[in-house]
Amino acid sequence: MSSKIILLPGDGIGPEITAPTLELLEALGTGFDYEEHAFGGAAIDAHGTALTDATLAACKAADAVLLAAVGGPKWDTTDPSKPRPEQGLLGLRKGLGLYANLRPVRPLEALYDASPLKREVIDGTDLLVVRELTGGIYFGEKTRSADSASDLCTYTRAEIERIARVAFRAARRKVTSVDKANVIETSRLWREVVRELHAAEFSHVELEHVLVDNAAMQLVSNPADFDVIVTENMFGDILSDEAATLTGSIGMLPSASLGDPESPGLFEPVHGSAPDIAGMGVANPLAMFLSAALMLRHGLGMEAEAAAIESAVDRALADGLRTRDLGGSAGTHEATQAVLSNL
Ligand code: IPM
Ligand code: MG
Question: N or C: which terminal CB in the chain sees fewer CB atoms within 10 Å?
Fold first, then answer.
């Protein structure tokens, strides 16, 4: 039976990077059964909410969910009573129990000069950000009055332990646990739980604890020193955008969000909906292609096909493919052809 994939093209450049991704998957002979749903701003326009119950139910019943991007100026608001596209994303992550967000950062030599960082700083970097995705300040109770507002940050021992376990399992040499244990109470619990799990089950892996401000600095001054970085929701959000500078563009970073083995994973690029270039045919589709590769690997157990996409992307870039975000002039179509011809 063919795997069922829910497609959520979303907003902005989302639809125009989703279509070529399907071309790529088809070229591999995957024969998936696709079902597309409006999501984010598109769903607010169509149904008044970023994530409908029907879409969530369809995602729960699928084998994997492939999402492009959500958001745009049309739905930007600071009014807490108005729907926002991002609520769809957060609702989906929570609704599917996707607590582990994997963001691999693997700069390619061909793109070293597209990065604002020096090539000798980037050289040798191959790291994985493991971001906790369903807890912390993103999901705590929020209050708002005319003159004050608050966001509660909560973590339980169980939430910290399960994400730390993902990080230790993924490590090849070291886990860097990032927190703010010198100030924040949830970080103190985080550090204790990571330390205890390490001692009990993973003492063969090196573990270090780094404060988030220092981690932010080391990420751009000594990135090759990291292997797996594990951190809470908001720190992971910030550090993964910073890490994108290592790859030359945020248009290069894919991500996988995983929960318990029986729930479908969600695969999406780290970049946003880029409303400024939407509809122009110039969006870089590579992070989306690489997210499809992560879907094949982590969501569907198709390692050979995943590796085929990744190496086709690598070779296209080595052959000189450069979209605008990488300092070139290739459009979405040209980028797609370049990858297809290397597949
Ligand atoms: C990300 C994004 C989201 C997040 C936004 C769009 C809600 O920045 O996936 O990194 O903050 O998690
Ligand atoms: Mg982000």
Answer: N
Is residue 241 annotated as a catalytic residue, yes or no?
yes
Predicted TM-score (pTM) of the model is: 0.95
Closest CA to 269 of 244, 246, 248, 234: 244
Q: Assign domain 116-247 to a CATH class.
A: alpha beta
Structurally, what CATH architecture does the domain formed by 1-104+252-343 represent?
Answer: 3-Layer(aba) Sandwich (3.40)
Q: DSSP state, 224?
A: G
115 — pLDDT class (breaks 50, 70, 90): very high
Nearest ligand to the C-alpha atom of residue 238: 2
94 as an active site residue: the answer is no
User: What residues does each domain of the chain span?
Assistant: 1-104+252-343, 116-247
CA-nearest of 334, 336, 284, 273 to 68 is 273
**Ligand 1 and 268: CB distance under 6 A:** no
Nearest CA to ligand 1 atom 10: 237
